[in-house]
Structures are given as C-alpha cells and as structure tokens.
C-alpha cells in the first residue's frame, strides 16, 4: 500500500496537450495544478515524481465503457472498472446505459451516480435514447439532462426506426444534448457473428456485412442534416462509414465519431482459430478496412479513440463462437495496443527494425488529443478533464512511457472479467502514474489503494 499526498512535483517530463509539446515541471497542490515552470523548487512535504523520458499528459477520457452495474456485477462493477481505468491512465469514464435495469429513468441515474462515489476516478453516465433500450418510445431526456446526462445512446442496439430517431434528434437539439448511435441495421446484420467475407465463408460462420453499418451511418447523417442536432457515431469499423463521416464533416455537419483500439489493431484474420475472445460488435473487419481506419485517423476523421471496454464472465465467452457474447475488455491496454501498432507500422514502412523513439512528438500529440481533450469535449466534461495542462485547472494527469515494451498477464487484469485479446501480446507504451483530482491513484505502475 502506498501513502497518498495532496502535493506532488512532477520533474523533467515532456508535457503534451492541446497547447503543444514542451519540457517543464509541474506542481500539483490541493487538487489543482498550482504551477508549471522550467524549474520549481520543491515545497516542503511534497512528493517528487521523476518524469524524465516520460510523457505528462491530461488524464485519458473514455467515451465508451461498459461497467455492467447494476445487473451484471459478476462481469464488472463501477469500482473494478475504475481500477482498470486508472491502470490505463484514465481519469474519467463515460459508462454506457445497457445495464439491467438500463439507465433510462431519473431513479436509475440517481442510483448509479451514488454507486460511482466509490470509484477511483470520475465516472459519468450516458442515458438510453429509448425506454428499456427497446427502440419503441423515447425516454424523458429532459429529466435525465437535469441530472447531468449529456449523451444518450441505446448502445448495443441501433435505433432502427428512422422516424423515432428523427424525433429523438429534434428533442435532443432542443435541450442541448448529444445522441450517440450504435450503427447496425439489424435486418442486414441478420444475426451474424463475424464480418461477412472470405474468412466467414471458410469458417462457416454467419457474417455481418459492412453495409449493416454503412446504411445506418448514411441514414443518420441525413437525419442530422434534417434536424441540425449533434450526433456521435460509436465504434466506426468500415472504410465506407469512415468516408461518410469525412464527407459529412466536410459539409460542416455537427458530427463526431470514434474508433476503438481493437478495430485499429485486429482484423477478421484473428478469428481464424474460432476463439470467441475476438468476437465483438461491430465485428473485426478486413485488413483493407483496418488500413482505411488508420488513414481516417491520421486525416482527423475520428474525434476519439474509445475502448468499448466490454467485460464478460468466463462462461459467456467459453462457449461456441455463435453463442458467445460480443465484446472484449480494453481499458488497461488501450495506449499500449495503439502505440504498439503505430510502432509496428513505422517499422514496416521503414523496412527495418524500429529504433526507440520512432513515434514523433507530432504523432504523440495527435494521439493524446484523441484520448483526452477531444473525447472530453464530446462528453461535455472539458472543464474538468482532458486538459490543457495549465495553472488553476483540476489535476487530472497521466504520465506514461511511450517506449516501454510490456506484455499483459492474466494476473495483472483487475477487471472482474479477463476477456482481453492482448494476453501475452507485445504492447508498447505503458502508464506509470495517474493523478485524479489531485490524488495519486497509480504510482510506478502500482495502484494506490
């Protein structure tokens, strides 16, 4: 157990945020950033953190976390999910509403907010768009918004009825909230389990075509054009959907979109061994789609990298592929998975083994933005989370080694579920310190409990 202090001096780190890149020292006191200077004399009683060769950034913000509580505490709780978040450098999580009961009423909102008091970081909640997430009637958005809900989604289900979605968007615009859509036309998905293509044919598994996503993305872009409401697209997975988002943004539409680490790092080839750990929704797509997602990421089509952290207890995954639950965990590994893939891509493009420091400061700045300031704006919490690192702001900070290579072991997973696709896989970039509202929650890679 590591003692906590309310005063920390972070020495010699490379500060990266929306203001740029610089070497500076940072003093945290009483929950806020008190000073940022080239050299700070240590105040009496402060804890010094040696951040030389490390990146100091705003704490990460995840727009898409499944915490399973209430209703499925066997798979995850708000507390256990917060532990995973702190290990991954997150200081804020946005929890999805597909719990049991779903987050679709003021009573449930009040209940989960009370549960979140035990979390090691700040947990915010998305509300459902429709009652029971059944796609038939709208929730009382105004009442939920009064309780602080800023984003609404039926995640896990796409709203199938276009007229209902139009009404939801019109209402959302009137009260100043954002709708987030799980883009999947169920009639086209047809109960599939994997990406439709050559791999699904060889394996004999029912496929989900790209069109199941693309059709709903196109529909909802037009509904945004009609209503003028804000829309956030969850876990974009296809090249066509990314292109549609690009065009909509070019037209100046109030649209944002996220991509997950697993859709950037993994593809349908990973399911060749019928391992349900790789079963997700939307499914892992083709290598061509994966490459297109990276191009879209580099061209600023995406506004956030979101984990879609989806824990499942062992029985839900250790079954036949068709029967297994969709989803994988990702809070602890998001940085390492994405930075690892960035390094591998550079190695391939250079035609030789990558030396340390291959990812540039500009690339790191872009990545940090996708993990911090940009998702914070979408979630409506940028006054507290996401940076920039300036005097007077709440001290929500992640400190990571962008070059550290490591492997995740099952014993290191603090989620109640162990369904990670990265067990024993080489990762690059690891969070060593996480400070939440001025309190040290992770020190040298170890939780401060």
Topology:
Blueprint: E1 7-17, E2 20-29, E3 32-37, E4 47-50, E5 55-58, E6 60-65, H1 78-87, E7 90-95, H2 106-115, E8 122-125, H3 141-146, E9 151-152, H4 162-175, E10 178-181, H5 186-189, E11 194-195, H6 198-203, E12 207-208, H7 210-227, E13 231-233, H8 239-250, E14 255-259, H9 261-265, H10 287-298, E15 304-305, H11 314-317, H12 334-350, H13 361-371, H14 373-379, E16 397-407, E17 426-436, E18 439-443, E19 446-447
Parallel strand pairs: 1-4, 1-5, 6-7, 7-8, 9-10, 10-13, 11-12, 13-14, 14-15
Antiparallel strand pairs: 1-2, 2-3, 5-16, 16-17, 17-18, 18-19
Describe this structure in words.
This protein has 449 residues and is an alpha/beta fold. The chain has a single domain (59-388), classed as Metal-dependent hydrolases (TIM Barrel). It contains 14 helices and 19 strands. The chain has helices at 78-87, 106-115, 141-146, 162-175, 186-189, 198-203, 210-227, 239-250, 261-265, 287-298, 314-317, 334-350, 361-371, 373-379; strands at residues 7-17, 20-29, 32-37, 47-50, 55-58, 60-65, 90-95, 122-125, 151-152, 178-181, 194-195, 207-208, 231-233, 255-259, 304-305, 397-407, 426-436, 439-443, 446-447. Strands 1, 2, 3, 4, 5, 16, 17, 18 and 19 form a 9-stranded mixed β-sheet that branches. Strands 9-10-13-14-15 form a 5-stranded parallel β-sheet, with helices on both faces. It has a 3-stranded parallel β-sheet with strand order 6-7-8, with helices on both faces. β13, α8 (239-250) and β14 form a beta-alpha-beta unit. The longest helix has 18 residues, at 210-227. The radius of gyration is 21 Å and the shape is globular. The relative contact order is 0.17. Mean pLDDT is 95; it is low at 348-357.
């Amino acid at each position: 157990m590591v003692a906590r202090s309310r005063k920390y001096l972070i020495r010699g780190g490379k500060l990266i945020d929306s203001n740029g890149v610089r070497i500076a020292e940072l003093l945290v006191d009483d929950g806020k950033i008190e000073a940022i200077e080239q050299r700070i004399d240590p105040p009496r009683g402060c804890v010094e953190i040696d951040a030389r060769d490390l990146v100091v950034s705003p704490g990460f913000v995840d727009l898409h976390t499944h915490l399973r509580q209430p209703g499925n505490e066997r798979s995850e709780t708000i507390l256990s999910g917060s532990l995973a978040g702190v290990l991954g450098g997150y200081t804020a999580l946005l929890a999805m509403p597909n719990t049991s009961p779903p987050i679709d009423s003021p009573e449930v909102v009040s209940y989960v907010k009370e549960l979140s008091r035990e979390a090691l970081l700040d947990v915010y909640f998305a509300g459902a768009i429709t009652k029971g997430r059944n796609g038939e009637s709208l929730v009382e958005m105004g009442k939920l918004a009064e309780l602080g809900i800023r984003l609404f989604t039926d995640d896990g289900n796409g709203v199938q009825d276009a007229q209902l979605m139009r009404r939801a968007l019109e209402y959302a615009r009137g009260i100043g909230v954002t709708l987030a859509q799980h883009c999947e036309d169920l009639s086209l998905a047809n109960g599939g389990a994997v990406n439709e293509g050559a791999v699904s044919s060889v394996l004999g598994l029912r496929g989900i075509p790209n069109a199941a996503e693309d059709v709903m993305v196109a529909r909802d872009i037009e509904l945004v054009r009609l209503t003028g409401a804000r829309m956030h697209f969850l876990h974009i997975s296809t090249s066509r959907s990314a292109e549609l988002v690009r065009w909509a943004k070019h037209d100046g539409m109030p649209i944002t979109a996220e991509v997950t680490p697993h859709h950037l790092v993994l593809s349908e080839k990973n399911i060749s061994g019928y391992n349900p750990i790789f079963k997700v929704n939307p499914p892992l797509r083709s290598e061509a789609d994966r490459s297109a997602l990276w191009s879209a990421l580099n061209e600023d089509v995406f506004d956030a990298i979101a984990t879609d952290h989806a824990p499942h207890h062992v029985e839900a995954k250790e079954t036949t592929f068709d029967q297994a639950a969709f989803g994988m965990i990702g809070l602890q590994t998001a940085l390492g998975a994405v930075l690892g893939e960035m390094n591998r891509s550079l190695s391939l493009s250079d035609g030789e083994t990558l030396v340390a420091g291959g990812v540039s400061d500009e690339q790191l700045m872009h990545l940090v933005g996708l993990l911090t300031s940009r998702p914070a704006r979408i979630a409506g919490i940028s006054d507290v989370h996401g940076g920039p690192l300036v005097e007077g702001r709440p001290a929500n900070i992640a400190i990571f080694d962008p070059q550290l290579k490591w492997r995740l072991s099952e014993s290191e997973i603090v989620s109640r579920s162990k369904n990670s696709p990265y067990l024993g896989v080489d990762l690059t970039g690891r969070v060593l310190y996480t400070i939440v509202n001025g309190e040290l929650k992770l020190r040298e890679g170890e939780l401060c409990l």
